[in-house]
Amino acid sequence: MPFVKPLPHWEAPGIEPPLSLRQNGWKAGVKPPDEYFNHLHSKAYEALKELQEYALHKDELDLSGLATDTELQAVEKIISTHLLNIENPHKVTKKQVGLEYVENYKIATQAEAETGSLNNKYMTPETTKQAVTKFTPKDVPGGFPVLDEKGKLKSDQLPNDTAIGIELLKITSLY
C-alpha cells in the first residue's frame, strides 16, 4: 500500500538558523526571519520525500521466507533441550580437551583412602588429608617423626592402631 497523504511540496531552500537559535529555540518577542521558516519547511519536505521514495510499507514486504511463531518456538525448544543435554551430544573426546591421560576413576571413600590398596580410584584433598592425619605419628611437633639412632621410628611415635603401626614398621624397615 503506497503513501496516501500528499507530500507538502516546498522548494525554497531558505537559510539555516544559527546554532545558538537551534539549541535554545525562539524567545518571546522575537520575530524570526522568513528565510529560517523556508529552511525548516524545505528540509522537512526533503526528508519526507526521501521516506516516500525509499521506504516500504509493511504490506509491500515479502515475509514468506521468515519463520512463524510456531517455528520459532520449535527451534527454541530444540536449543533448550540441546543445552540441557549432558550426554556429550557432540561426541567430544578426552583427547580433544586435553584429558587423554586421565582415567575415568571414581572418588575413593575415606576407608578406601586409608587402606591404600586400590589403584583405580582418586583421592580428594579432604580424603588425602584425613588419611595422612590418620597415619601421622602422634604427639610429634610439626607432624614430623623423630628417628632413633638406627633411622627407625621411635615406638612412642607410632599410631595407636596396632595394624597401622606394624605396616609403618614394615615400611620404615625398608630404608
Count of distinct structural domains:
3
Q: Estimate percent helicity.
A: 40-55%
Number of helices: 6
Instruction: Trace the largest sheet across and list its strands.
Output: 1-2
Distance between the termini: 97 Å
User: Beta fraction of the residues?
Assistant: under 5%
Query: How confident overall, as mean pLDDT?
Result: 83
Largest sheet: 2 strands, parallel
Outline the structure in words.
- With 175 residues, this protein is mainly alpha-helical.
- It folds into three domains: 1-62, no CATH class; 106-133, no CATH class; 136-175, no CATH class.
- It has helices at residues 19-24, 34-54, 69-84, 110-115, 125-135, 162-173, and strands at 106-107, 121-122.
- A two-stranded parallel ribbon has the order 1-2.
- Helix 4 links the parallel strand 1 and strand 2.
Q: In brief, what are we looking at here?
A:
By secondary structure, the protein is an all-alpha fold. It contains 6 helices and 2 strands; from the N terminus they run αααβαβαα. The chain is elongated.
Question: What key attributes describe this structure?
Answer:
single chain, 175 residues, 3 domains, two-stranded parallel sheet, 6 helices, 2 strands
